[in-house]
Amino acid sequence: MNKKTDIKGLTSAETISFIQSLNEKPFRAKQIRQWVFDRGISDFSEMTNLSKTFRERLADTANVTELEEADRKVSSDGSIKFLFRLHDGKTIESVWMPEENRATLCVSTQVGCKLACGFCMTGEGGFERQLSTAEIVDQLIQARKLVPGGRVTNIVFMGMGEPLDNYDNVLQALKVLTEPDCGLMGARKITLSTAGVVPGILLLAKDFSKIKLAVSLNAADDATRNKLMPINKKHPIAELFWALKKWPLPKGRLLTLEYVLIAGINDSDDDAKKLSKLCSDMPVKINLIPYNSASGAQYKSPSKKRVDTFMKIASGRGLIVLPRASRGQDIMAACGQLRGKRS
Length: 343
Ligand code: SF4
Prior knowledge:
Layout: E1 5-6, H1 12-21, H2 27-38, H3 52-61, E2 62-63, E3 68-74, E4 80-85, E5 91-98, E6 103-107, E7 110-112, H4 121-124, E8 127-130, H5 133-146, E9 154-157, H6 167-177, E10 190-194, H7 198-207, E11 212-216, H8 222-228, H9 231-234, H10 237-245, E12 255-261, H11 269-278, E13 284-290, H12 304-316, E14 320-323
Parallel strand pairs: 1-2, 6-9, 9-10, 10-11, 11-12, 12-13, 13-14
Antiparallel strand pairs: 3-4, 4-5, 5-6, 7-8
Helix pairs in contact: 1-2, 5-6, 7-10, 11-12
Iron/sulfur cluster (SF4) binds near residues 113, 115, 122 and 162.
């Protein structure tokens, strides 16, 4: 049996081609896309402005991925962590983080992750499989149905998995999400965060640099970064920064470097000085995130005083450093705490 075409993984032009391959008029594509993306309908039989015969034809040749909400946890800070079940029973997490002026959805791109960063629970569980484009896109569509007022103003690719290790499906998801006809999200409202997959950064710079890029840096020297993030052995800091310099950054914009501050590992005065020196000729801002010691975690959170001192030293040397509180700490939804069913 031929594999069915997943409408949620198609751009507007691809949907038109698909509809034409079924000998239907192109405007039918727009009708289907309105059902799928605007109204969140996944069952062709509910698409009542299409003929019964066409709906049956669609059901034979196409499908519309729909994630199932398996669980949710609500944090005292208002964040919600959703556990979504995929068609094969595997689970992923997405986190919704409301603020006064925005509401950001953190989406997953893989079930598990290959990169095994030392401070991350997703990495601890190993890799299971890539998410399809539709599974990535549907996290937004489902979240909009589930959160108060359907309010999602921004997306960060920062959940389970390394987005650039699932390059083709993530690139296609970026295209689908930003298609003007379904109006899901503007490109400037999307941030993709990578652990430093250099070939992926170079490809994305050519293929889709309209979004914002963030890099999970976490150390300013290779010895420390090698310990925290094994990918650094493959793509050391100098190579990573060489690639970042090739990112076509619009004038006046900054790249984001995330720095999870871990007690006794990367939080010394010397680390702050090294970080300022490393970034001295880069258009970057640092998101400084104190590490969360979750139960069983091998690292410790830094003291408030240490965080303040680190910030003072780095910003005193000209670096833009923004303190970031991890959201949803009480529901294990903070950075590095997502782990799907294993939680
Ligand atoms: S921090 Fe990101 S890249 Fe590293 S193991 Fe966790 S999910 Fe993978």
